[in-house]
TrEMBL record:
The lineage of its organism: Bacteria, Bacillati, Bacillota, Bacilli, Bacillales. Residues 2-59 form the RNA-binding S4 domain. GO terms for molecular function: isomerase activity. Its EC number is 5.4.99.-. The keyword RNA-binding applies. Keywords: Isomerase, RNA-binding. CDD domains: PseudoU_synth_RsuA_like, S4. This is Pseudouridine synthase. It comes from the Bacteria. Belongs to the pseudouridine synthase RsuA family. PANTHER family: PSEUDOURIDINE SYNTHASE FAMILY PROTEIN-RELATED (PTHR47683), RNA-BINDING S4 DOMAIN-CONTAINING PROTEIN (PTHR47683:SF2). InterPro entries: PsdUridine_s_RsuA/RluB/E/F_cat (IPR042092), PsdUridine_synth_cat_dom_sf (IPR020103), PsdUridine_synth_RsuA/RluA (IPR006145), PsdUridine_synth_RsuA/RluB/E/F (IPR000748), PsdUridine_synth_RsuA/RluB_CS (IPR018496), RsuA_PseudoU_synthase (IPR050343), S4_RNA-bd (IPR002942), S4_RNA-bd_sf (IPR036986).
Length: 243
């Protein structure tokens, strides 16, 4: 017997967190009856459906995607804007993004149909490094960058320590390019961190996710993760170390 939300996540419908939301909203049935209790357990013989679609086991797939700017990190959009899954018409599994990148942020994004894997990588207790390169409207002083590195107060609390490095400065155009590595995943966090020290982010790109990079990819391109990379990500999330 397994918890209902775990079964839904493992089948690739959504992350476990999203699966719980689907249950609460009454979109899940077990043997034809709507179930809204998160503690419900089901067996392999039970017929589980999400919005009328049978939940069946799928082969797990894992992708690294170079998300362009102007694309939504979702599987659908009520405004008919382009979403990340539009780039995967050849994939039969119901994949979804692991975490998100803002509409106007480009860079490395993982997609999968493995809900447990996604939950492992996005859960707050697991500290996966994510490195961004930000082009700023203005040139921050070094003490300001040190504030970001030690943690800065935002409206939803103080940020965890970050790694911050100045890449380049254009005094004529009054612009700076800064690399910042964080392990949290708050909404628009990097942009808000720079806003907190008085600077607008003109352009933002996620360059690295843990040990993964965008090497060999252009915006809108993708590749499958290797079995070794998937294993390494699991190990890193669970232990904080690579083996």
């Amino acid at each position: 017997m397994e918890r209902l939300q775990k079964v839904i996540a493992q089948a690739g419908f959504a992350s476990r967190r999203k699966a719980e939301q689907l249950i609460i909203e009454g979109k899940v049935t077990v043997n034809g009856k709507v179930v809204k209790e998160l503690g419900t357990k089901v067996s392999a013989s039970d017929k589980v459906e999400v919005s009328g679609v049978p939940v069946e086991g799928q082969e797990k797939v894992y992708f690294l995607f170079y998300k362009p700017r102007g694309v939504i990190s979702a599987v659908s959009d009520d405004k008919n804007r382009k979403v990340v899954t539009d780039y995967f018409p050849f994939v039969e599994q119901r994949i979804f993004p692991v975490g998100r990148l803002d509409y106007d942020t480009s860079g490395l994004l993982l997609l999968t149909n493995d809900g447990e894997f996604a939950n492992l990588l996005t859960h707050p207790r697991y500290e996966i490094d994510k490195t961004y390169v930000a082009r700023l409207n203005g040139i921050p002083q070094r003490y300001m960058l040190k504030q970001l590195a030690s943690g800065i107060k935002l409206e939803d609390g103080k940020t965890a320590p970050a790694k911050v490095k100045e890449i380049s400065v254009d005094k004529k155009k009054q612009r700076a390019t800064i690399e910042i590595t964080i392990h949290e995943g708050r909404n628009r966090q990097v942009r808000r961190m720079f806003e907190a020290i008085g600077f607008e982010v003109q352009k933002l790109k996620r360059e690295r996710y843990a040990f993964l990079t965008l090497k060999g990819l252009n915006a809108g391109e993708l590749r499958e993760l290797t079995a070794h990379e998937v294993k390494q990500l699991r190990t890193l999330a669970e232990t904080g170390m690579l083996r």
